[in-house]
Amino acid sequence: MLSSSPAGSLVFWSGCDRDRAVFRPPSPDFPHQGRLRWRRTVPREGRDSNRSPVSGVRIAGQVPRHDGPAPPLPATRSGLLNCPQRATPIMLFSLRSPVGNTRGPVAVEQWLLGQLKRLDAATPLSLVWSSRQGEVGLSIELSESASGLAVEELQDAYPGLVVTPQVERQRDLESDLWTMTLRLAPDVLLLRTEEVFLDVTDQRAYRDPLAGLLAAIRCGQSGRTECTVALKLVPARHRRIRDHRRVIERVMQGFRSERWLWWYLQLLSDRRFPLRLCGRFLGRVAGGGPHTLDPNTLKTEETLFECWLTVTVTAPADAEHVALQKLADVRAAFGRFTDPVNRLTDRTGPVVKRLSRRSRAPSHVGCIGRPLGRSVLLSPSEVATLWHPLWTVDESVSRTVKPVFRELEPPVGLSSKTGTTGQTVLGRTCFRRQRNQFGIARDDLRRHLLVIGKTGCGKSTFLAHLVRQQMEAGQGIVLIDPHGQLAEEVLDDVPRSRTNDVICFDASDTVAPVGFNPLIGPPGANPALVADGVLTAFKNVFGFDEGSAPRLLHIFRNSLLTLIGRPEASLEQLQRLLTDANFRKSAVARVENAAVRNFWLTEFGRWHERERTQYIASLQNKLGAFTTHEQLQRILNCKRPGLELRTAMDNSQIVIANLAKGRLGHDASNLLGSLLLSSLHLAAMSRADIPEGERADCVVVVDEFHSYLAEGNSTISDALAESRKYRTSYVLSTQFLDQLDRATLAGVLGNCGSTLAMTVGPRDAEILCELLGRGLLATDLMQLPQFHGYVRLLTDGTPSTFSMTTQPPPRWRPKRAATIRRVSRQRYGTARR
After folding, report:
1. Which CATH number is associated with domain 90-235+300-394?
2. pLDDT, tens digit, 9 for 90 and up, residues 725-780
3. pLDDT digits 0-9 by tens, 284-307
4. Can you tell me the distance from the alpha carbon of 573 to that of 587, in angstroms, rounded to the nearest whole number?
5. 141-160, pLDDT tens digit by residue?
6. What is the predicted pLDDT for the residue at 132?
7. CA 285/CA 264 separation, integer angstroms
8. Could you give the CA distance from residue 620 to residue 716 in angstroms, rounded to a whole number?
9. CA–CA separation, 449 vs 466, rounded Å?
10. CA–CA separation, 600 vs 605, rounded Å?
11. Of 55-69, 258-272, 421-435, 543-557, which gets the smallest average pLDDT?
12. DSSP states of 212-264 as a string?
């Protein structure tokens, strides 16, 4: 190509790189001029490695340097350079269509109109249909500089659309490429657009033609054969639009015969320039007749794109028949968008490319198979009909790439600062490209947090992160673990500065267990409340209520009220109180409660000996299962005060209760957990004797809390409703909501201000969908991947639901469990004699 240059020079520009040959006439100052010299104006590394041979001859030599800026690269007749120059890196994004999408191609049409000013010959946009490893889906390819805003606008147009950057893949050394370029002839006529595919009989439902095209592109699951269709487009140049309008004007003026009209359209749509010249001549000599076309079938839009549609099949060298059949299938699938008068054809036929090792390097989809020949003109509505996220009625297309889960946008005022005072980090937001760390304020955490999810979804990892943060912040923490693994992990995470603050309540410890006496409540506690808490715990294990065993519970309650308040009171003395008349007489003499004393002196004494023996024997049988448990005896009948929950809460200590069912037994673990929950509630309420501002915060984390609740057990519901004012926060974890009775479930869901839902079952999903809102479906909660969830988070007292990911488990943990356990035994344990 020739262009003018200063000082009368002629500059020859090549088509592939900014090299130029400069011819200067001879002069006295420059006697060496008069010969053609070659100059390179850009470094070699800035050029495309897959460029075509340079047009022109390179002649070595030297010329005086020209300090001015180099002219821009010229465009060829096709609108793009023969070898594309990449001023900025090219990005390939994979799209996952949202589940339940009800927005059709119109949204893509508006999105394309918004990209007009950002696209040019150097930075085109490629819309891609591809099948890899048996999955079929959509992608977009565009420059890195324009990708940010373009992707966000597309996701705004299709809520729930997941866009992820796609890593370039190494091409198989044993595969070849078969390429085919499809052209629309004549391109002055419209393709079938959205209105054609509306089903009027079915409430105007949209029957998406893209489903059939994706089915044709889909390849086998082995991955040996892959198919890619790339539609590369740039805004149409002024000259192309001018020629297009002239063609429409000539068609509307009419032709002498219909045959001349179609010959005219076909010749002007040909990729060869001489034939297009013949078409222009034909329009002049054969025009002016009665034969014309319906204006509704012509592209009269002001906005048009120059497009190249390339089909590429990658297959082993010995599978040529498979590749050719796939090309034929894709070409036939595009027929649903055309009429008999305008067709997508392949004039040159498939081209096989034997790839060299150099060309097998990773390459972007849009550059596979260089678009050849003249471009075709398509309107935004036509492009949108060809390429758009699948409609909801066509989600049954097999092996389509679907979103892993639906992403919900977080609130604007969500805190994301690391280490903010009073903040507990819960995870990271998961919405589009946002992966911001967020947390919950201390005041919002006092309104409690509920965590629901099946086993293996990441609940324990989430709880371990939460406990670790409380320990590092110097806050009080109580962890009740019915399995033991979480407790062991937390012991390793205890900071060195808080070693002496840990009370390791390991129920299976046989060396020096920490004692716990539930009959000795906090100072100033009401004995009736202590008795109710112990009675509720035993009712959970016994499995009876007031209706099934009223007399048994009556005896048990009065026995507890008789012993509570005595310094030496313990559960071991219950058996003696029922069987030893002398001990019972001395114990009753110290009772100050008149109702309790009258029970023993009048009601209990009036019973017949046989009835008394029957009731006492039944109660002894149930108590004996625990009072004879050797490990429970060491814990519940320990003389040395070990675990004092009120003291631990006031001093911000760390209580780690390991109630492993595999070591202690199912019933014994449930009994200890129920007793701990009742005592924690009493300890929290007893802090009413100090001002609220002086109460230290304490976080109670209960894993599998349903294990410690029976039907009618209101311990948790009461604690959630009353503990906020006592600066006690509850974090409850469970696998299934069906494990809770109706009253407890209503109390938990009603009093927990924040809820984290991970992978759940179908019945729980229906309940949580109503609680979380935001249009979530039951399938969204049932198909969550590991360490993902939806959280209904309180932010300054206002709930909002969004998607999140929890923090991953740490790669390394310090082995501090043995040291923590040894210090805890020395300070709070009782050595076995």
Report:
1. 3.40.462
2. 999 999 999 998 888 888 888 889 999 999 999 999 999 999 999 999 988 989 89
3. 888 888 888 888 888 888 889 999
4. 10
5. 988 888 888 888 998 888 88
6. 85
7. 11
8. 28
9. 11
10. 6
11. 55-69
12. HHHHHH---TTSSSEEEEEEEEEEPPHHHHHHHHHHHHHHHH-BSSHHHHHHH
In three-state secondary structure terms, 492 is helix
The two three-digit tokens of residue 273, written as one number: 């320039």
Instruction: Write down the pTM of the prediction.
Output: 0.76
773: left (phi over 0), alpha (psi -120 to 50) or beta: left
The amino acid occupying position 144 is E
Cβ density class 203-228: b for 16+ within 10 Å, e for less:
eeebebbbbbbbbbbbbeeeeebbbb
The dihedral of CA 392, 394, 398, 400: what is its sign? negative
Q: Which of 578, 457, 563 is nearest to 519 (CA)?
A: 563
Q: How far is residue 583's CA from residue 600's CA, in Å, rounded to a whole number?
A: 12
For residues 657 and 133, which has the higher predicted lDDT (pLDDT)?
657
Instruction: Report the 10 Å Cβ neighbour count for 328.
Output: 14
What angle do the packed helices 666-685 and 609-627 form, to 10 degrees? 90
Structure tokens at 65: 């340097």
For β-strands 798-805 and 654-658, DSSP reports them as unpaired
Q: For residue 599, what is the DSSP state?
A: I
Helix (H, G, I), strand (E, B) or coil at 504: strand
Distance of CA 511 to the CA centre of its chain: 46
Whole-number Å distance between alpha carbons of 420 and 16:
55
Q: Is 603 helix (H, G, I), strand (E, B) or coil?
A: helix
For residue 75, what pLDDT band results from cuts at 50, 70 and 90?
Answer: very low
In order of 181, 429, 463, 735, the CA distances from 450 in angstroms are 57, 18, 11, 11
User: CA 346 to CA 332: how far, in whole Å?
Assistant: 11
Top-confidence residue, 531 or 104: 531
**Token code pair at residue 419:** 């280490």
% of the chain with per-residue pLDDT over 70: 81
pLDDT of amino acid 424: 92
**In the chain, where are the structural domains located?**
1-74, 90-235+300-394, 517-641
Tokens linked to 283: 């329009």
CA atoms of 604 and 590, how far apart (whole Å): 17
Q: Which two tokens stand for residue 759?
A: 């992978």
**120 vs 693: CA distance, rounded Å:** 65
Burial, 832: exposed, middle or buried (Cβ in 10 Å; 0-12, 13-18, 19+)? exposed
Residues 6+ apart with CB under 8 A from 394: 207, 208, 210, 211
Tokens coding 363: 């390459």
H or E element in which residue 380 lies: helix 380-386
pLDDT tens per residue, range 57-68: 333 333 344 444
Tokens coding 789: 């969830």
Chain position carrying tokens 């959205």: 194
CA distances from 225 to 92, 220, 326 (A): 20, 7, 10
User: Biggest alpha carbon distance in the chain?
Assistant: 140
One-letter amino acid at 550 equals P
Report residue 821 as tokens. 């356990």
User: Which residues are within 8 A (CB) of 809 and not within 5 positions of it... i.e. 6 or more apart?
Assistant: 461, 464
Q: What is the DSSP letter of 442?
A: H
Q: How far is Cα 716 from Cα 744, in angstroms, rounded to an integer?
A: 8
Please report, as a single letter, which amino acid is at residue 270.
D
The backbone torsions φ and ψ at residue 205, rounded to the nearest 5 degrees and listed phi first, read: -75, 150
Alpha carbons 729 and 743: distance in angstroms, whole number: 21
Q: State the pairing for strand pair 343-345/175-185.
A: antiparallel
- Rounded to the nearest 10 degrees, how much is the dihedral formed by the CA atoms of 514, 517, 521, 523? -60
DSSP class per residue in 776-791: --HHHHHSPPTTEEEE
Q: CA–CA separation, 216 vs 278, rounded Å? A: 37
Torsion of Cα atoms, 244 then 250 then 251 then 254, to 10°: 180
